Amino acid sequence: xxxxxxxxxxxxxxxxxxxxxxxxxxxxxxxxxxxxxxxxxxxxxxxxxxxxxxxxxxxxxxxxxxxxxxxxxxxxxxxxxxxxxxxxxxxxxxxxxxxxxxxxxxxxxxxxxxxxxxxxxxxxxxxxxxxxxxxxxxxxxxxxxxxxxxxxxxxxxxxxxxxxxxxxxxxxxxxxxxxxxxxxxxxxxxxxxxxxxxxxxxxxxxxxxxxxxxxxxxxxxxxxxxxxxxxxxxxxxxxxxxxxxxxxxxxxxxxxxxxxxxxxxxxxxxxxxxxxxxxxxxxxxxxxxxxxxxxxxxxxxxxxxxxxxxxxxxxxxxxxxxxxxxxxxxxxxxxxxxxxxxxxxxxxxxxxxxxxxxxxxxxxxxxxxxxxxxxxxxxxxxxxxxxxxxxxxxxxxxxxxxxxxxxxxxxxxxxxxxxxxxxxxxxxxxxxxxxxxxxxxxxxxxxxxxxxxxxxxxxx
Length: 460
Fold this sequence. Notes:
Elements: E1 11-14, E2 25-31, H1 35-42, E3 43-44, E4 55-62, E5 69-78, E6 89-95, H2 98-110, E7 114-115, H3 120-127, H4 133-144, H5 148-158, H6 163-185, H7 195-213, H8 216-224, E8 226-232, H9 238-246, E9 264-270, E10 273-279, H10 289-304, E11 307-313, H11 320-329, E12 334-339, E13 358-360, H12 369-379, H13 396-417, H14 422-440, H15 446-453
Parallel strand pairs: 1-7, 8-10, 8-11, 11-12, 12-13
Antiparallel strand pairs: 1-2, 2-6, 3-4, 4-5, 5-6, 9-10
Helix pairs in contact: 4-5, 6-7, 6-14, 7-13, 13-14
């Protein structure tokens, strides 16, 4: 392994979020050959409690030299191989907060452990064969999940929903390769290769790879979410729209133009997709120095957004200022939100034909919010993400490897069609097998592991 991940020795880390003066429990996790020895040195369990695997002991963490009690705690014992890392693991369940867990961690380090690198517990689970690489990545996705759908997709990955089909695809490709190479090495002793059967298998492999690849966009949305910017002229009801949508008073609402001076953010979930909503300052020419800064930030937010909600006033209709703003954001997907329809319910508004999605709202009365969410899902063409049983949602790394596998398989198909010798078939078939192996970790480099596990939190 690289210097980032030293996979030997005993490691320790705080495995729970530590918030000053908050939290009821803090966990210090220790994994490795010295885990049990460290636990016996630091933990005093009164009475005749059994130090056996998968037992919880009650007692005290004490400083071995001074015998001073550091914390009243529970000790969880998990002996190899029945642990997360398949090594001996102990967990000190301490009182929450900063001081107790940091003291216990320091004692563990002083008595034989070292501080774990980010993701090193999960790395060890991978290296010791408990998880494949798709499951390890699902652990990180589960920790970072920003919605129920994202959490369920991560759990599906952790349970092997991606691992199983990738293993099956790779095994099939290996079987085909073995058949071809056998004909190359022992041509005179074996019957001719059934080319029709190989072609059928190749088509089935390609179809399955293509099917899994189709989940890449869904997976990216579930993991990173959607950035939506509400833009428009001053006083068209942008802040009212945000408040109605988020069911809060995040933004100040008045009848005075230019009230919002900066970008206000709110985190929502729409159809299972995490959505970061940006309420921007009204875009207009102004001499006010502070408002001018807010307007510029609004333009930048709109340009960086995945989707723009261009909001106009139903009473005023489509005016020159709206067109000017539209010209600045038309390179992004745009939904036209006609707000304040309670004041002009029958207004006929002329807007550019290039705008195809229109939603009418009366934000002051919470009207049209459901229609807005439906339009957003339609705009990104992911309405099916509202389902909670998405089994496979691949990430960018997996997508890149699958794409390489698909290209290699397509090349094998072309090689067969061109009637080239069997040796040529094996070249691209091996490339496909290698790409599929990179997904699960059967063929993976240290740099890939560094990149994956460095994004984990310490203690996981």
